[in-house]
């Protein structure tokens, strides 16, 4: 059996085989084109800061896997930029995600979480992704950007289509991209006519006042903040709840000592983080990774999931252990492309879990057979059916 078999359906098993066999493997991407996947913690961590591994597609060689293809108006984002453009664009938005700014958002995040839990009632069954884990981050990030309520459900549908596209229905992904282009075009036009106290209005003002931000960069930045701000957090929340319910001893320990929750979020991120892979990279020259020489221009995939379960860095890595020191995990990246919204994702996950556990002493999976998205890059649940009650019966 090819060690890369199962990367989509059983990623942790497949990455374990790859990591145990060799540090670097040549595999086929979802489009059938080749890529190199790096699996061991030290190699992945070093590669994330290696300036010879560029995220800029201009360094890509034809015939290699290049991942999601977007039009220029959505593709000119931080994930595809190197310095100095990356530095220039990132500094325009980083202040919205500082620890101080996120601390100010904690109260409204908790209010949103409580409102969503109120809607569930005192007991029953629910798909926690649809009723809680998804609407919480989409509400938070849309409020931050200033996106009206009426557009939020559509954006969730478009995002889900892009994260786990159906190979048999390529037209769905194209339609989602077209819809996003129209959506962001209209949204920017509306904000220019009626600016408000929100991040998107601030970015438009910066662009229109002559800061070096192109129209494509503006639209792409809005897209990335909304896409990543929703996508990473819904997966982190859903994956964390599923992990707790599958490890009742860890759930009991967390209930007994809620002060451990911030550290527990780091272990959830390590154990079942939202991204299986970092954004693909292209060597600007021949590079040696884990003893393997990768030619310039070929695609390099850095497996965050494999690195976070490398026993050389985390003992017994396949065991969820909320008392573990999970610092140094790579779930949210490393280096200049470290996740811009990491402080917000951490805060939202911590608050979402605290509110859920406080509200419902009884929580249990309603279906043990959890269904995961079929994605090479993202790790998230399609649904999370559970039963809940405000009192143990």
Automatic annotation (TrEMBL):
InterPro entries to which the protein is assigned, alphabetical: Cyt_P450, Cyt_P450_B, Cyt_P450_sf
Family the entry assigns: Belongs to the cytochrome P450 family.
PANTHER family given in the database record: CYTOCHROME P450 YJIB-RELATED, P450, PUTATIVE (EUROFUNG)-RELATED
Entry protein name: Cytochrome P450
């Amino acid at each position: 059996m090819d060690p890369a078999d199962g990367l989509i359906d059983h990623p942790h098993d497949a990455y374990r085989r790859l990591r145990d066999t060799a540090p670097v493997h040549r595999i086929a991407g979802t489009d059938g084109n080749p890529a190199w996947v790096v699996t061991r913690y030290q190699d992945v961590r070093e590669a994330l800061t290696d300036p010879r591994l560029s995220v800029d597609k201009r360094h890509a060689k034809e015939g290699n896997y290049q991942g999601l293809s977007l039009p220029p108006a959505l593709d000119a984002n931080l994930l595809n930029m190197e310095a100095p453009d990356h530095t220039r664009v990132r500094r325009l938005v980083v202040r919205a995600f500082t620890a101080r700014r996120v601390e100010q958002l904690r109260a409204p995040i908790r209010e949103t979480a409580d409102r969503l839990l109120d809607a569930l009632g005192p007991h029953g069954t629910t798909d926690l992704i649809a009723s809680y884990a998804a609407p919480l981050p989409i509400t938070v990030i849309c409020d931050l950007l200033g996106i009206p309520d009426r557009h939020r459900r559509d954006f969730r549908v478009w995002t889900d289509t892009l994260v786990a596209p159906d190979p048999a229905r390529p037209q769905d992904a194209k339609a989602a991209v077209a819809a996003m282009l129209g959506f962001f075009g209209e949204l920017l036009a509306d904000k220019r006519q009626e600016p408000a106290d929100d991040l998107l209005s601030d970015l438009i003002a910066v662009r229109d006042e002559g800061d070096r931000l192109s129209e494509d960069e503006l639209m792409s930045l809005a897209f990335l903040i909304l896409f990543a701000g929703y996508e990473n957090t819904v997966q982190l929340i859903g994956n964390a709840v599923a992990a707790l319910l599958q490890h009742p001893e860890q759930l009991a320990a967390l209930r007994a000592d809620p002060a451990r929750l911030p550290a527990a979020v780091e272990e959830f991120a390590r154990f079942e983080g939202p991204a299986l892979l970092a954004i693909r990279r292209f060597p600007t020259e021949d590079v040696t990774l884990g003893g393997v020489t990768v030619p310039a221009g070929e695609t390099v995939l850095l497996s965050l999931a494999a690195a976070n379960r490398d026993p050389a860095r985390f003992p017994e890595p396949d065991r969820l252990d909320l008392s573990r020191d999970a610092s140094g995990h790579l779930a949210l990246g490393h280096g200049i492309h470290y996740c811009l919204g990491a402080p917000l994702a951490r805060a939202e996950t911590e608050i979402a879990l605290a509110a859920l556990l406080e509200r419902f002493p009884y929580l249990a999976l309603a279906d043990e057979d959890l269904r995961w998205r079929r994605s090479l890059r993202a790790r998230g649940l399609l649904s999370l059916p559970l039963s809940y009650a405000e009192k143990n019966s």
